[in-house]
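Consider a concrete sample entry:
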Amino acid sequence: MSNTDYEAGRIGLLLIDTVNEVFAEGGKGYPNFREEFDRIGTFENIKRLLAGARAQGIPIFFAPMSYTEEDYSSWKHLSGIHREMFDNRMFAAGSWGAEFHPELSPNPGEITIAPHKNIDVLANTDLDVQLRQHNVEYVAIGGMIGTMCVESTARSAMERGYHVTTFTDATAAAGGRDAYEAMILRYPAISHATLSVDEYLAAIDKA
């Protein structure tokens, strides 16, 4: 069962990879997710989540991914996902693809995490210290990719003692609908709450 007893003043929202490469037509990753975005309503749901969190005044953290030319040429051991990204020069630092989508980008005063290069955003960025410096204990995680960065970061956050919320409709899976269904079955095992955007906004409003 979902635990939505959020503590006012300790709630934060993390959005992963809300960049052109994934969310904009013309992004190299966009064709892989377009059908699922349309089915789930991912883009509009994240926009609504972002607006609702801003209206509540909770801290919002944006975690982009990017790689330098040195990264592309010097990494020794490439996982399958890294090989795909490196071969296609995805998320190239300084490129249009690595920029935030205009409708899913930080406002002044919102926090941009140092670009992550691995799947778990907590593994090699300043996310942990930023959450703690902003007094966040209850972290909700949306964005992309639901079966990779979102899932890995949620699991890591749970293991570090955060209260973790994942979303059913503010993400999408790599692998289509079957992968999405399997992901949604896994989320409750690594999260304290797995909610729709509407359910989450109602819960933080109550808090």
